[in-house]
Write a structure and sequence with these properties.
By secondary structure, the chain is an alpha+beta fold. The protein is 36% helix and 17% strand.
């Protein structure tokens, strides 16, 4: 173990022989988000099984040298991410695209709580979103230069068609997620932005300019850490958006507890005009309590 980096890695070459297709899928998913925790791995891949099942599977990948782990303190979450040989293996089997200089993802200490919450929302939307043919492009993938059409090819087994495609790092601002899917037979595109700490006016300006320029037809799902911050951000952005009547109906606001706790189409995505985004059906204004499963009013 490297005491400075907190990394744990098995000695010797990683074992990629006879890799179960489910493990290949899991490794590609971890790479998409840079990392995963045991709890989030369980929610994504073993939602009807115990935490121990998820931990055992991660332990197996760790022992084979396919993932690494880092943990600052014993009582904090353990973060798992792909080793360089695992990245090379997925690249050679046309499961992911990587830059010529293959390296493990860097987990930013100051951003990982934000990133962990974005991943929790992604898993909730994927598991209970009701979206068909859902494809998700993470902020990490967008910053690496991955395009939505390439991500679809990789996920549908057409990665070999991308021979010659090269990633070029994007230095402009990207949202926390961009995803597409079908609801009730209709195609939709969404961008997700999560405000973990309050945005100042400069960040609000950059947010509006980025989403308007790069995602002109997508619904903009703006999530804050709690209800008070969601109200504040909506009011702050209103001054930037009120002059664009065409784009105004694309903006919807909610907060983390709602998005991570409710089916996607029942999250009350509130518009600046006081209604809901058009795909919302029977929005739930209550969410289950954390202990006994009883409902409590949160909106």
């Amino acid at each position: 173990m490297n005491p400075k980096s907190g990394l744990n890695q098995k000695a010797g070459a990683p074992d990629t022989g006879a890799l179960d297709p489910r493990d290949t899928e899991a490794l590609a998913y971890i790479h998409s988000n840079k990392f995963i925790t045991t709890k989030l791995f369980q929610r994504k891949f073993h939602p009807h099984q115990s935490h121990v099942t998820a931990w055992t599977r991660l332990k197996g990948l760790l022992e084979r040298g396919l993932i690494l782990k880092t943990q600052n303190l014993p009582n904090e979450d353990t973060y798992y991410f792909l080793s360089r040989p695992a990245l090379a293996f997925l690249s050679k089997t046309a499961r992911i695209l990587v830059s010529p200089e293959i390296r493990s993802a860097h987990i930013n200490t100051f951003e990982r709580e934000h990133d962990k919450r974005v991943l929790a929302m992604r898993i909730q939307i994927e598991n209970e979103g009701g979206l068909e043919n859902l494809t998700w492009l993470s902020d990490y993938e967008m910053r690496c230069g991955l395009k939505m059409v390439w991500k679809r090819a990789l996920e549908t087994g057409k990665g070999w068609d991308l021979a010659g495609a090269k990633l070029h790092r994007v230095h402009q601002r990207t949202p926390d997620g961009f995803f597409t899917g079908r609801l009730a037979g209709k195609d939709y595109a969404f961008v997700l932005e999560y405000e973990h700490t309050p945005y100042n006016r400069d960040k609000m300006t950059a947010l509006v300019l980025n989403l308007t320029r790069d995602f002109p037809t997508a619904f903009r799902l703006i999530v804050s850490r709690d209800k008070d911050h969601a109200v504040r951000l909506a009011h702050g952005l209103e001054s930037f958006l009120k002059g664009d009547a065409q784009a105004l109906p694309l903006w919807g606001f909610s907060f983390y507890e709602k998005v991570v706790g409710l089916p996607f189409c029942r999250v009350p995505w509130v518009t600046l005009k006081g209604g809901y985004l058009p795909f919302v059906k029977d929005p739930l204004l209550t969410t289950p309590g954390p202990e006994d499963g009883q409902e409590r009013v949160t909106a």
